Amino acid sequence: MRIDLHCHSTASDGTDTPAELVRKARAAGLDVVALTDHDTTRGYAEAVAALPEGLTLVTGAELSCRIDGVSMHLLAYLFDPEEPALLAERELVRDDRVPRAKGMVAKLNALGVPVTWEQVERIAAGGSVGRPHVATALVELGVVPTVSDAFTEEWLADGGRAYVEKHETDPFEAIRLVRNAGGVCVFAHPAAAKRGRTVPEARIAEMAEAGLDGIEVDHMDHDADARDRLRGLAKDLDLLVTGSSDYHGSRKDVALGAYTTDPEVYGEITRRATGAFPVPGTGGA
User: Fold this and answer.
1) 265 touches 242 (CB < 8 A)
2) DSSP 38
3) Which of 41, 53, 80, 88 has the most CB atoms lying inside 10 A of its own CB?
4) Taking the CB of residue 112, how many other CB atoms lie within 10 A of it?
5) Of residues 227, 259, 235, 233, the one with CA closest to residue 246
6) pLDDT tens digits for 247-276?
7) Cα–Cα distance between 186 and 258 in angstroms, integer?
8) Residue 178: which H helix or E strand, with range?
9) Mind listing the pLDDT tens digit for each residue in 196-229?
10) Nearest Cα to 58, choosing from 273, 282, 283, 249?
11) What is the Cα–Cα distance from 101 to 99, expressed in whole angstroms?
12) Cα dist from 123 to 17, 37, 164, 171, 225, whole Å
């Protein structure tokens, strides 16, 4: 089995619609794909309706969190999307995305960059607006050559000149909410240092004690040394190890299935989850 547990669609900051995503996942030879848009589950229905035969969909979301001033993401899998407490928190985070993006536009304007909110809104195309949409605007204007080049201290990285904070959930509270909604939590790209400061291992150990299920180890932003270190940490803390592409369509230079999760780990995730179940494809529209 080939299993990719971290992918984004136009429901947040990917460039493929949910339907396109699942079709491309099957064409790429995947057997299981997770839809993990940022702080939203809006893409579920379209993905399920288009799910091709031979592909199983894991529903999820990538939750925006912050601890000790460090931004981090939690991948939540197979939770009940209608559970009220987790739904309310997701909406709180999502509602703060628009004023935050407008704040980044204002800061960029003050730096002499002629980006407009209308441009960012067009790029987001109704999705959950975020920094990648602002970064894409910078690419369109020729300010930076790629989206990744916008995530520096000069521009949009944490603490960068045009960075604006947003509401982010305490990870311990997020773990509690996801578990109460029947879901499973995995710390996304914990050693992605080029994105900014990372969470110390001591804090990850505290999260493990609080119910964190796993850490994403095999990821494009982790070099070989980071992966070895994270595997050792996962073993010490008895955490699951996942791998995934963090696919965003054309917004990032990584292919579906570039990194994958071991079938036994996937089986354990589905065993632990009680809020939802993987959806097998039957030949969608």
Assistant:
1) yes
2) B
3) 41
4) 7
5) 259
6) 999 988 899 999 999 999 999 999 999 999
7) 18
8) helix 171-180
9) 789 999 999 999 999 999 999 999 999 999 999 9
10) 273
11) 6
12) 13, 16, 19, 29, 36
How far is residue 152's CA from residue 263's CA, in Å, rounded to a whole number? 36
> In which element (H, E) is residue 74 found?
strand 70-77
DSSP strand E in 8-53: where? 32-35
Which amino acid, one-letter code, is at 212?
Answer: L
Q: What is the mean pLDDT of the chain?
A: 95
Residue type, 149: D
pLDDT of residue 79: 98
Is 27 buried (19+), middle (13-18) or exposed (0-12) by CB count in 10 A?
exposed
Give the span between the Cα atoms of 79 and 34, in whole angstroms: 12
Where are the alpha helices (H) located in 56-155, listed in sequence order?
84-95, 97-110, 117-124, 131-140
Contacts of 44 (CB under 8 A, 6+ apart): 18, 35, 59, 81
Distance CA 199, CA 191 (A): 8
DSSP assignment of 149-205: GGSSTTTTSTT-TT------B-HHHHHHHHHHTT-EEEE-STT-GGGS----HHHHH
| 62 phi and psi angles, rounded to 5 deg | -105, 115
> Which one, of 64, 121, 71, 115, lies nearest residue 98 by Cα?
121
Q: What is residue 127's predicted lDDT score, i.e. its pLDDT?
A: 79
Token couple for 54:
């031979």
Q: pTM here?
A: 0.87
The Cα–Cα gap between 20 and 52 comes to 11
Tens digits of residue pLDDT in 49-75? 999 999 999 999 999 999 998 999 999
Cα distance between residue 116 and residue 257, in whole Å: 35
Residues written for the chain: 285
User: Across 125-134, 190-199, 200-209, which has the greatest mean pLDDT?
Assistant: 200-209
How confident is the model over 86-110, as pLDDT tens digits?
999 999 888 888 999 999 999 999 9
Q: Would you say 126 and 10 are in contact if contact means Cβ atoms under 8 Å apart? A: yes
